[in-house]
């Protein structure tokens, strides 16, 4: 049966060294293609995809399969394999492809390690900004090698709240988000995965999103949680591979509770 035990210090060091190494490899492939001509095609859901997305994921999968042949894999471009394994890697090669193809620097590479279906290590890498967050659940989050922490904001009326785009919400979800975000101190749009890094570093206080896939949030969850924040679905349940696409991230438990209550109306 899969283990739910936390990683040992030796395991954390080994997995982090490997994950940061392949994140460096991903940067080496993606960054030289940024703000350069690139062919864009569209998947069945009409979301854009480029050869950079596919090339980065292919490289990451190959490196993981070589290093950890018994581990499972979940990726945006090439699907899932052996996700019932004790250890599973989740990959989003270019989170924010629309940003990438339009020259906007707020795109990233997301790499997560799950143990027993629970995210325990997350990397949020922003190549164009030279910023990287590494989070170990129950330990700490570091941004470019220095510890970071979410803010102390507890009240919705004092919170700076972000989401990527209104287009991600159904009409009913938008009604709940609109009500909640208008009760905040301020709301802003844009950012893709970058907003979660800003939350982990204490610059903003909350992110609410919908219509995400597991590879969109599995790497982010350890980054937020290990920085002292809270990240769940809209019902307050822990996030895993089988979670729906609606997520709430908050700097403190009190703010998270206020967001959940507001979303429920």
TrEMBL record:
E.C. no: 3.1.3.15
GO biological process: L-histidine biosynthetic process
A Pfam family this chain is assigned to: Inositol_P
InterPro entries: His_9_proposed, Inositol_monoP_metal-BS, Inositol_monoP_superfamily, Inositol_monophosphatase-like
Reactions the enzyme catalyzes: L-histidinol phosphate + H2O = L-histidinol + phosphate
Cofactor(s) this protein cannot do without: Mg(2+)
NCBIfam families per the UniProt record, alphabetical: his_9_HisN
Protein name, entry field: Histidinol-phosphatase
Organism whose genome encodes this protein: Luteibacter yeojuensis
């Amino acid at each position: 049966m899969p283990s739910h035990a936390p990683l040992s210090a030796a395991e954390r060091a080994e997995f982090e060294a490997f994950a940061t190494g392949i994140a460096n490899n991903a940067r080496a492939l993606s960054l030289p293609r940024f703000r350069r001509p690139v062919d864009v095609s569209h998947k069945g859901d009409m979301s854009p995809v480029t050869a950079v997305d596919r090339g980065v994921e292919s490289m990451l999968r190959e490196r993981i399969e070589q290093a950890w042949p018994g581990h499972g894999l979940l990726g945006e471009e090439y699907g899932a394999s052996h996700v019932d394994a004790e250890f599973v890697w989740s990959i989003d090669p270019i989170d924010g492809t629309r940003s990438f193809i339009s020259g906007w620097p707020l795109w990233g590479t997301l790499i997560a390690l799950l143990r027993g279906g629970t995210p325990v290590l997350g990397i949020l890498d922003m190549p164009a900004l030279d910023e990287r967050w590494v989070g170990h659940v129950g330990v700490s989050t570091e941004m470019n090698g220095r510890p970071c922490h979410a803010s102390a904001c507890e009240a919705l009326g004092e919170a700076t709240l972000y989401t990527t785009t209104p287009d991600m919400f159904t009409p009913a979800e938008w009604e709940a988000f609109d009500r909640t975000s208008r009760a905040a101190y301020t709301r802003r749009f844009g950012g893709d995965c970058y907003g979660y890094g800003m939350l982990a570093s204490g610059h903003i206080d909350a992110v609410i999103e919908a219509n995400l896939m597991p590879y969109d949030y599995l790497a982010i969850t350890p980054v937020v949680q290990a920085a002292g924040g809270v990240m769940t679905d809209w019902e307050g349940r822990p996030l895993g591979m089988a979670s729906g696409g609606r997520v709430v991230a908050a700097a403190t438990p009190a703010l998270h509770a206020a967001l959940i209550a507001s979303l429920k109306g």
